[in-house]
Amino acid sequence: MELSSITKDILKHLKEKKYMIQGKVETLEKVVMHDYGNIAGIVVLKDGRKLYENYFNECNANSRIHIYSVTKSIISILTGIAMDRGYIKNSDQKVLDFFPEYEIKKGEKTIQKVTLKNLLTMTAPYKYKFGPYIKYFTSDNWVKFSLDLLGGRGKIGKFRYTPLIGPDILSGILVKATGQSVINFAQENLFAPLGIVVEKNIIFESKEDQLAFNQATNISGWVSDPTGVNTAGWGLTLSPMDMAKIGELYLNQGMWDGKRVISTEWINESTKEHSRWKSQNLGYGYLWWIYKDGFAAMGDGGNTIYVNTKRNMVIAITSLFGPRAKDRMELISEYIEPIFGK
Asked: Sheet of 275-277: strands edge to edge?
């Protein structure tokens, strides 16, 4: 049967559109390899469908990458789940309520006023000007190390981004509140429902172990200190599809396969602006960065989960560590969204 002229025109249009998209994707991949050379993988979801998945630097779907500060946003999710389950009363609880055994130094007043919300919004003060990273990494207890540096003469409520030393207090709170390790609580309440596998605790025996971990693509796990408390500001390994699932969970207001994983109330509260990094002109929620059309989890090297709520879209990017990585939001806005966001 001969096709009508209208059908022929439609097929011609679809074929032209397919070739046009292919051309744009090829341009995207050339840009990635030229300007974003440490990217390991990219996954794009729109309206719940996978539109793009590709890997670079000899990585594949089974590769697990250290996602650095994206770990913070996972901790935010776990805090919300703990609150949903009644383990934590609310975000206004004082930090020291969870550590009754902690001995406050004479004259210390600020630390007694710091709340869970201050930790989540990066508005807690710390005693250090420059992070004492060597002392941190060689400490036996990263939660206590961070508590010892909490407070001081800084002002509560003023934004201060703390990459490593400070967020681990949130892990300590989760352990105290739930009676479980962070990784076990996460496996039971977040990872398993989403089909994400995080195999084990990772404890470094040497500096060389840590350096090797940062470059590895085949380790599934979550770093912990010698006491077994998992890190909150870094240290988790995931694939880009794992990260895309996290974004999709939030885009779907906490629902996954018809079951509620986390409350809509927590998602809405944690992804609205509570504080702002003025020098970077970026809003901050509960360990999520806030953008005009959505929100993002951002990690060193360019690891990213970006959720565009207006376009019903999730973009996940894993990246190998590299200094001075180019801004992923520029890649997303200039190349990825124009191709797949319509």
From this structure: 49-55, 39-46, 313-319, 303-308, 294-299, 289-291, 282-284, 275-277
